[in-house]
């Protein structure tokens, strides 16, 4: 089986292959539709291929995340944190249902692992390195619209740490975000989206969404929980206490260094 989002993207395959028409995808990212079209060109069933591909992607995500964490943590802690991070309900569902989450997670982790290895652990900011970062960014955006925010965070990190000159940073960041900008321009060109964009209720919607994502910070500490989602005030307390604790630890370490 597959969730509704996946079915919408799979239904767009015929239009893509016959007329190169992506309009049926609507607001969804086009990455899954593209890879499903490739499967169909190879005379393979896209749904079955995606279904059997997902367990391997889960294993790939575990391996990438574990390798990242063990560079800064002991192996046993890195293993437990990786296991906790990948035991959420969303990923467990991907074992018996085709979902977009595990595919997009794999693309994002590949991007983060490459940047960690080549920009943080070992500074190798060559033309080939930047090209691969751009390609991985495009792939991440094609499979998940929200990946653009992770890429913006990566760009902020690169800017703060002076990994590029200002002119190079502007060029690289523009190219990295290009697929997301193009997709947004096409999607919000629709009349309904334009009305929502200029509506009076837009600021409240933005604040609501921001608060919702801010409260998801609890998933850094605990596995995803439907029960916890029903108690937003408790999530808020956990988030605030966690941030205060992190600030305290950071200040304490700075005092020790002095």
UniProtKB/TrEMBL annotation:
This is Glycosyltransferase RgtA/B/C/D-like domain-containing protein. It comes from marine metagenome. Keywords: Membrane, Transmembrane, Transmembrane helix. The chain crosses the membrane at residues 47-66, 98-116, 128-160, 167-188, 231-249. The keyword rRNA processing does not apply.
């Amino acid at each position: 089986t597959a969730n509704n989002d996946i079915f919408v993207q799979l239904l767009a395959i015929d239009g893509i292959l016959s007329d190169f028409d992506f309009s049926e995808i609507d607001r969804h990212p086009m990455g899954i539709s593209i890879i499903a079209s490739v499967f169909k060109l190879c005379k393979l069933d896209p749904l079955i291929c995606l279904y059997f591909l997902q367990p391997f992607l889960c294993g790939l995500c575990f391996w990438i995340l574990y390798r990242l964490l063990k560079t800064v943590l002991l192996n046993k802690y890195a293993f437990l944190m990786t296991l906790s991070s990948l035991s959420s309900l969303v990923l467990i569902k991907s074992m018996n249902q085709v979902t977009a989450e595990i595919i997009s997670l794999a693309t994002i982790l590949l991007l983060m692992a490459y940047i960690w290895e080549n920009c943080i652990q070992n500074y190798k900011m060559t033309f080939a390195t930047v090209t691969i970062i751009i390609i991985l960014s495009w792939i991440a955006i094609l499979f998940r619209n929200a990946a653009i925010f992770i890429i913006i965070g990566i760009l902020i990190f690169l800017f703060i740490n002076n990994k590029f000159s200002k002119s190079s940073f502007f060029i690289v960041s523009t190219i990295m975000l290009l697929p997301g900008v193009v997709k947004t321009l096409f999607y919000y060109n629709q009349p309904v989206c334009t009305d929502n964009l200029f509506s009076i209720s837009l600021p409240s919607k933005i604040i609501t969404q921001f608060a919702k994502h801010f409260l998801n910070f609890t998933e850094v500490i605990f596995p995803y929980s439907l029960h916890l989602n029903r108690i937003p005030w408790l999530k808020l307390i956990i988030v605030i206490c966690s941030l205060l604790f992190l600030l305290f630890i950071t200040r304490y370490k700075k005092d020790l260094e002095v």
